TrEMBL record:
Residues 35-186 form the HhH-GPD domain. It is an enzyme of class 3 (hydrolase). It holds the Pfam family HHH. InterPro entries: A/G_AdeGlyc_MutY (IPR005760), DNA_glycosylase (IPR011257), HhH-GPD_domain (IPR003265), HhH_base_excis_C (IPR023170), HhH_motif (IPR000445), MIG/MutY (IPR044298), MutY_C (IPR029119), NUDIX_hydrolase-like_dom_sf (IPR015797). The lineage of its organism: Bacteria, Pseudomonadati, Bacteroidota, Flavobacteriia, Flavobacteriales. This is Adenine DNA glycosylase. The gene is mutY. Its cofactor is [4Fe-4S] cluster. Belongs to the Nth/MutY family. SMART domains: ENDO3c. PANTHER family: ADENINE DNA GLYCOSYLASE. Keywords: 4Fe-4S, DNA damage, DNA repair, Glycosidase, Hydrolase, Iron, Iron-sulfur, Metal-binding.
Amino acid sequence: MKFSNSLIHWYLQNKRDLPWRNTTNPYLIWLSEIMLQQTRVAQGLPYFLRFTEAFPTVFELANANEEQVLKLWQGLGYYSRARNLHKTAQFIAFELDGIFPATYKDLLNLKGVGEYTAAAIASFVYNENVPVVDGNVFRVLSRYFDVETDIASAGAKKEFTQLASELLPKGKANVFNQAIMEFGALQCVPKNPDCTNCVLNDSCIALQKKKVAQLPVKLKKTKVANRFFNYLIFSDEESNTIISKRTAKGIWHNLYEFPLIETDDLILENEMVDVIKKQSFVSNEIVEVTLCNPEAILHKLSHQHLTIRFWEVKVQGKINNGLTYESAKAMPFPIVIFNFISKFWVDSQKITKFD
């Protein structure tokens, strides 16, 4: 079919030189696919390189502790991917003797591996004849064939998977799947694609109907919760501080943070100081409370918008079980906290900048 052949020809001439494309090692391809979920290649590539340097095989990753994995993942977001990655590495290393499942069906049994990831690994590594369907594929197919199905609807995945299956050339799953994904990433981009210089412009129905900007259709709106976080950066007479691990399910599970007070909205500084003084995070007497960032930080997650303020809380004496800043810096933090405290500690000349 012209569509498939044109895509493959375009891909072979225009594909990016990426490390996971120069191998059929299932560990490296699995790692790249997990990292690139919800993540652009430009952002994910440095993490991939750091991970493969620290954990060149699945055995090194399996033998690492979770905090090492989360620290390397820090800033990539969607931290459940990192936790699942670690658990799956342990399963493959210790239960499967380091041998990855070799079929789409068996790959689906791995924790953190869904239909898209299983299809990507199965086709890229083993050339199994299964289609991949991600956001890029939705966009390319909906525009080229003028498919108006809402991609957020219940039946959309099945419909687009069936269409992709019909287009998949037998024996070329590895190159076709990478081609259609790359085409969506580089050519058929979400906004203002260069249709004039597109290899499919003479047969793209959306272009003919002037509907490119309207496709794909996505009607479902994500509900966003607004939350207000107040982090307390305690500091005793020896400049020790306290942090704790977020053990509850939800955002940033198993990452570290400073003592947190969540409020229903932004409150006045004097009111917040009163709230802080009533808390029992430490037994030391509070000497001074200072708002570090009068302009709150807005941190947007997929389903939550966090308005974050940091408060320096100086106390008398020595904090029980306090940590030096050097010890604290080694722990995995949510990136919004890490970035702020790095700057805060540098500006206040309390310690040298984080590594």
